[in-house]
Every structure is written in structure tokens, then in C-alpha cells.
Amino acid sequence: MAISADRVVAVTSDKPQGHRPAKTNRIELRATEDDRDLLDPAAAALGTDRSSFLLAKGRLAAQRVLADREQFVLDADALQEWEWIISRPARSLPGLARLLERPSPFLTPAADQPQA
User: Fold this and answer.
1) The overall pTM is greater than 0.70
2) Cα dist. 88→25, 59, 109 in Å?
């Protein structure tokens, strides 16, 4: 977990930062002529080729989709509240305990067990 004064970023990846293995896999993509005509000038505007452009933007989109599963960013106030929440002792919730003791309504009871 990396900590700075104004935010916390927790990343679950165990790969070293900046590590880029050789590109040994091929990804093929079909596109319309209109798509290609839009992508090529955008790539050129960033000084790159179509493949690098699509890979970079695809990686960014994938990271955004997966962000809530891999990392979370908190400002200083939210970090303080999070630390307070996770440091509290567990509460006893009798209603939850009773609920968890009941048989599941989604399972068919065995013939030798009484119905609830």
C-alpha cells in the first residue's frame, strides 16, 4: 500500500512497477474503415502508431473497469474514517446470528431433517 498525505492507493498486483515484458502475443481486431480513419489521426496526434495507441487506451479502459476490484483511492478525511471503521471491535448482531442459524430457503431439506 502506498501512502501519501492526501490519498491512499492499495494495489493488489505483485508485478514490479514499470515492468514491461516483451510483446510476444498478437491481438487481432476488426474495424470499419470509419473506425480506422478516426483511430489513425488520433494515434498520430499523440506521436504513436495505431497498435500502440489502441493498446495504451485499451489498458487504461481495462484498468478503469477493474479499479474497484484492485485499488481504492481515499482523500485524507475518507482515510481517517476508514481507519476508524476497521479499527473498531466487532459488534454482536443477534438478529444476524439467528438468521445465519436458520436453514437456507434455497436448499431442499434432506428427508431426515425437520422442516423449518
Assistant:
1) no
2) 48, 38, 38
Cβ distance 49 to 43 under 8 Å? yes
Please, which residues have CB within 8 angstroms of residue 29's CB and are 6 or more apart in sequence?
54
Spatial distance between the Cα atoms of 24 and 90, rounded to a whole number of angstroms: 49
Per-residue pLDDT reduced to its tens digit, 50-108:
999 999 999 999 988 888 777 778 899 999 999 999 999 999 999 999 999 999 888 87
Kindly state the cell numbers that stand for 40: 489513425
Angle between helix axes 50-70 and 33-45 (nearest 10 degrees) is: 90
